[in-house]
Structure formats: C-alpha cells, structure tokens
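Sequence, please.
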C-alpha cells in the first residue's frame, strides 16, 4: 500500500540533499528510465548499479526506479509493445501474456525493449526537468538552501568537490 507520509518524508529528503539540482535530477531521470524497462524485479538492483557506475545519487536513482508502479506497469507494457512493433515495421498488436515474468515476455523482447526504451527515454527527460524545477523551487523557500543552490548553479558543480 502507498504510505503517503513515507513518500512525503522521502520527497523532503531528496529536495534537501546537499547536491547540485542537476545531479539530483540526473539520478532521478536515470531511475525513471530504468522503471520503464521490462526487467521486473531487477529495477532496484539496476538503479543501484547505475548510481554506482555513473556516480549518481543513490536515493534519487532508486526513487526514480519506483515511478512505474504496479498500477501503471501493465498499460505501459502494452503501449511499449505496440510502439516497438510499429517501430519495427510490424502491425500493432495486443500484448497477450500469462504473466509479467521474463519467461512469458521473452518472445516479445525485441518489441518490448525497443518500445520501453523510447517511452523510458521520453519519461526520463521529462523527469529530469520536473525534478530540477521542483528542487530549485523547494530550495527557494529556505534562505540557506536557496543561497547554496544559487552558488552551485553559478559554478555549475558541487561546491565541496574542489
């Protein structure tokens, strides 16, 4: 079940991170992309691995990876499949599988991966800009965070890395 207070706490933690808004947003965007892949059960390990490999914020990457919820995954999977088929020059068809396990999806892998990559990329770009905007707006409410964010944006990087 969705715990509203837990999500509020997590959002506040992310918005208050002592990091450049672009770095926070990049981690979130990579997580969002991962959330649209058809590799169910591997989203969390993939997000942690991506955060380590690309030196992204782990909290924001994980949060982004959990954007595509069980409520939205079936419609997104169907749309991804249709889009992937169209991009391959095939007629769009309904995705008919018995479950979301890879054994049921692997016969449709090419269409699913192609379609989910395109949708995931678009969602990641939108997620980056939305996250960046929200972090900056949130920080404007706190004078110390607003000053820190302004300095980071002027310098273009983290202030404590030098």
């Amino acid at each position: 079940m969705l715990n509203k207070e837990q999500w509020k706490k997590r959002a506040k933690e992310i918005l208050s991170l002592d990091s450049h808004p672009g770095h926070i947003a990049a981690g979130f965007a990579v997580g969002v992309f991962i959330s649209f892949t058809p590799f169910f059960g591997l989203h969390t390990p993939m997000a942690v691995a991506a955060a380590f490999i690309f030196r992204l914020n782990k909290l924001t990457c994980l949060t982004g990876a959990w954007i595509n919820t069980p409520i939205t995954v079936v419609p997104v999977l169907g749309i991804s499949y249709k889009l992937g088929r169209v991009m391959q020059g095939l007629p769009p068809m309904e995705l008919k599988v018995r479950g979301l396990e890879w054994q049921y999806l692997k016969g449709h892998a090419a269409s699913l991966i192609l379609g989910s990559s395109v949708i995931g990329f678009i969602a990641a770009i939108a997620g980056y800009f939305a996250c960046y905007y929200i972090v900056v707006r949130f920080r404007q409410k706190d004078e110390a965070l607003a000053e820190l964010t302004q300095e980071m944006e002027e310098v273009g990087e983290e202030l404590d890395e030098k």
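The chain is about 70% helix and 0% strand.
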